[in-house]
């Protein structure tokens, strides 16, 4: 099975464009250091990964593409371009000349306007994403889902994946709004979803053991499987953000338990096959 991490991050704080990291509270102190491909490779055995932007700048996109040139496990980069500008079409075309550039992700969860995705992007920029064969990672929470529904209806040819299952409220209770809108998004048969970024949304008491974490997440996985099926679900570590809550190994163990009752074929889709298709990757070749 071609195991692939569809969502991880790398950064160098000294580069200076990680505003959320600079302005966040002391709880982010563990993340205020370099995290680079060799660090993750030491944890996952140099498994292939998709590196996802963590700063709203094209400079960081070029930084990640630079890492991909030297780190063989980085097989794709989801970067950032200012989609509100019609000039984004040229910037996207230039980035797309690099085969490791797979798509873009606006940091929607940090934008105050919940309707931004439906109102702000320039149509020319979205058309360029479609024309260039690029993808769109939607970093959203429940409040963004109605706007995302409208955006996806307007651009049905754009491949979209919902990051972190839109971060359901695992601390206070998942809302009916999340259930309703996620089901509506999944119903069109094209949208994908990432099984990632969930443990950092959980009550710390539910992370005292793998068993408690699995118990909490099983109903979420059940709904995601009902809505998206294994061929539209993909696993990601969300490393190093995940380390604010648990270790990389802990999430691996939770994943193994969560997927244990699925067929080998369905596990293979979630743990690699879906991401390979969605991001247009080549199948791994055994040495």
Fold blueprint:
Layout (H helix, E strand, L loop, with lengths): L3 E5 L10 H5 L13 H8 L3 E5 L5 H13 L3 E6 L8 H9 L4 E4 L11 H4 L3 H9 L3 E4 L6 H10 L5 E3 L13 H11 L5 E4 L14 H19 L4 E3 L12 H11 L5 H15 L9
Parallel strand pairs: 1-2, 2-3, 3-4, 4-5, 5-6, 6-7, 7-8
Key traits:
alpha/beta, TIM Barrel, 8-stranded parallel beta sheet
Notes on the structure:
By secondary structure, the chain is an alpha/beta fold. The protein has one domain (4-278): Metal-dependent hydrolases (TIM Barrel, Alpha-Beta Barrel), CATH 3.20.20.140. The chain has helices spanning 19-23, 37-44, 58-70, 88-96, 116-119, 123-131, 145-154, 176-186, 210-228, 248-258, 264-278; strands spanning 4-8, 48-52, 74-79, 101-104, 135-138, 160-162, 192-195, 233-235. β3, α4 (88-96) and β4 form a beta-alpha-beta unit. α7 runs parallel beside α8. The model has no long low-confidence stretch (mean pLDDT 96).
The overall pLDDT average reads: 96
Global morphology:
globular
* Structural class by helix and strand composition: alpha/beta
> CATH class, please?
Alpha Beta
- CATH H-level homologous superfamily name: Metal-dependent hydrolases
User: Order of helices and strands, N to C?
Assistant: EHHEHEHEHHEHEHEHEHH
Largest sheet: 8 strands, parallel
Strand order of the largest sheet: 1-2-3-4-5-6-7-8
Question: Can you tell me the number of structural domains?
Answer: 1
* Number of E strands: 8
Outline:
This protein is of the alpha/beta class. Helices cover 40% and strands 12% of the residues. It starts with a strand and ends in a 9-residue tail after the last helix.
């Amino acid at each position: 099975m071609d195991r692939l991490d569809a969502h991880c991050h790398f950064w160098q704080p000294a580069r200076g464009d990680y505003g959320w990291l600079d302005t966040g509270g002391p709880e982010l102190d563990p993340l205020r250091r370099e995290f680079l491909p060799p660090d993750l490779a030491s944890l996952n055995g140099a498994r292939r990964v998709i590196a996802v932007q963590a700063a709203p700048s094209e400079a960081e996109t070029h930084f990640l593409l630079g890492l991909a040139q030297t780190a063989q496990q980085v097989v794709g980069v989801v970067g950032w371009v200012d989609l509100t500008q019609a000039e984004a079409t040229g910037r996207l075309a230039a980035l797309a000349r690099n085969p490791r550039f797979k798509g873009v992700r606006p940091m929607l969860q940090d934008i105050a306007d919940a309707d931004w995705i439906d109102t702000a992007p320039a149509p020319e920029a979205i058309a360029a994403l479609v024309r260039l064969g690029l993808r769109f990672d939607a970093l959203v929470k429940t409040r963004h889902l109605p706007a995302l529904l409208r955006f996806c209806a307007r651009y049905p040819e754009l491949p979209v994946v919902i990051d972190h299952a839109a971060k359901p409220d695992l601390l206070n209770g998942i809302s009916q709004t999340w259930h309703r809108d996620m089901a509506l998004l999944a119903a069109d048969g094209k949208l994908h979803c990432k099984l990632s970024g969930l443990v950092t949304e959980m009550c710390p008491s539910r992370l005292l053991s793998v068993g408690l974490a699995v118990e909490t997440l099983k109903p979420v996985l059940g709904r995601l499987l009902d809505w998206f099926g294994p061929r539209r679900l993909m696993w990601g570590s969300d490393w190093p953000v995940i380390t604010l809550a648990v270790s990389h190994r802990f999430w691996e163990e939770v994943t193994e338990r969560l997927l244990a009752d699925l067929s080998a074929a369905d596990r293979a889709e979630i743990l690699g096959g879906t991401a390979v298709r969605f991001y247009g990757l080549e199948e791994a070749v055994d040495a």
